[in-house]
Amino acid sequence: MRKELDSIFKPRSIAVIGASTTRGKIGREMIHNILLAEFQGKVFPVNPGSPVVHSIKAYSTALDVPDAVDLAIIIVAKEHVCEAARLCGEKGVKGLVVISAGFSEVGKEGKKRELELLAVCHEYGMRMIGPNCFGIVNTSPDVRLNATFGKINPRAGRVGFITQSGAMGEAIMNHANELGIGFSLIASIGNKADISSNDILDYMRDDPNTDIILMYLENFGNPQNFTLIARKISRSKPIIAVKSGRTKLGAMAASSHTGALAGLDVGVDALFEQGGVLRVDTVEELFDVAAALSKQPIPKGKRVAVVTNAGGPGILATDALISNGLEMPPLSPATIKKLKKSISAEASFSNPMDMVAGAGGREFKLTLDAIKDDPRYDAIIPIFVPPVTIDQMDVARNIQKSLEGTDKTVLACFMGAGEKPEAIEYLKEHNIPVYIFPEAIAKTLALLAEHREWLNKPSGKYKTFKIDKADKAEAEAVIENAYAKGDLSIVGEEAIRILQAYGIPAAGYEYASNAKEAVAAADKIGYPVVMKINSPPILHKTEAGGVMVDLRNADEVREAGNELERRVGKLKKGEKFTVGLQKMVAGGIETVMGVTIDPSFGPLVMFGLGGIFVEVMKDVSFRINPITDTEAKEMIRSIKSYPVLSGFRGTKPVNEKIIQDTLLKLSQLVRDFDCFSEIDINPFIASADASACKAVDARFILQKR
Length: 705
Prior knowledge:
Helix content is 39%, strand content 21%. It is of the alpha/beta class and 705 residues long. α7 links the parallel β12 and β13. About 2% of the residues have low confidence.
């Protein structure tokens, strides 16, 4: 792959198919940008109607170019793209960037045209970015390629950028120039008919000029592959992503825009979390984080010190930092003692450290000199609100002078400083990012702390449990029997049999069709018992009033059976009323485990608070299957109600190891059988007592064959 993509990102020669002499046309702007960037290779315009383009000899077709061509950029009408690509193939071109639109993004006919184009690429062994894309950039001194049609020549830097939207690509490049952020590689992948974001991501992993990767995505081609690639990269190069299509309408728009279905947002969150990708909500946040990562070290922890010359911004910063899970320890006695020797007695000497409005460059330097040596802090936020009497440049110089060389993360805030003041530009030039409001800094620091946690946590292992052939055959028999009966739902004892076959602890059933059998079953199990309607089958038994709990003697069992039969009412022809009885599992906490199949991401494993509250509380976590042991542990500990599981107000913590192993066994079950569309284990009783940790009820919904 690296060699194939080198022909696109590091070409020695380029043919621009559709180069134009008309200013403002894409074919003309493309040639202009390639020359303006001082491309370190040969450029061949291809235009059958003009002998010269932009003072360079032009050729009628790619076949007429006298030299070898590594990369062809195609900018012709959609009807002529396939023929242009075919001529490139005959010429021996290795890579294509197809700018032309009118393919899968416009519907059925466009999709057909795209498949024909892809077939041409496969026939001649060419790799292609696009169609319907904005182009590519490589700022490396030995390449200097700007093969886009935008108005801005991007700065050179160490940030890689992958975008699925051409318009967003141009907007982001322009904004990055204003912020002083430079790029190493840029790839607008468009419809990604051949080369996907995964391919570019993998290429950037090994690029020595790329330290950070930014992504704007609308959908995923191969989510599982994305997770594997991102896991490897994010350990050494942070990945920050904006994924559009969070809402249903947004997802529909993304689908029509790119010609591919957008997945559920919960799947995106799981995908990014498992891959160590930092997800941001907006393009503005994308730059906030990129500026911090490109100019500052990742904070070693969550402890932040705020130094300000105004009380209001200090309060705003405090609220934002604490709300985002960060910490603000008080100043140490040693730091306070040092500060009181040089700072006005009117200062707060707390965190936030408010030096009052008259504080200028001198006060900022003295305060920061003391705080940067305080081991209680991992990050420092200088906040300056410029009064008329204070010289902004003096403040900026003193902030920079004090904090130069510190290993703490420094993010500055200049509120009300005006449009592009010299002081802000000075700090940026000296690698201190500057933000307009403290809330943006708080969000940025929270994401950096999240990245630090990702770097520190173990990568995890995929665990495989030994399942006997007989047990696996037992599960398969239950599934095949359901299909044979034309029944796509497996509940009751059959569902429990599947769980038990995979070593998942579950409460077994005894069945009865009359009062005498029910009492005998209860006596055999041992009181107290739970009675559930078995036939006719009901998926949601609790909601339908089909469950009677805590039955402590024979009389209560008889009464419960009669009541359930009354609730069922008149049976259909051929139906027979039966109940299932289980030993009542008491004293634990009801949790839920399950699997749902997402059309884009495949199986999503779920864990959360269970019982009748699961749909109300929605306190659940998801991961894309397969999951590692580390991810299973994270699923348990990431729900809001985890304190209930870990021991609350004197209660004993539940046996997490059993829950973790159950999630991993469920993951293995789904890997072994791809026939499920939904699995629901609800409730799974979590208890401190290992013998009481059991699935009490379950259901499996099968896919149609």
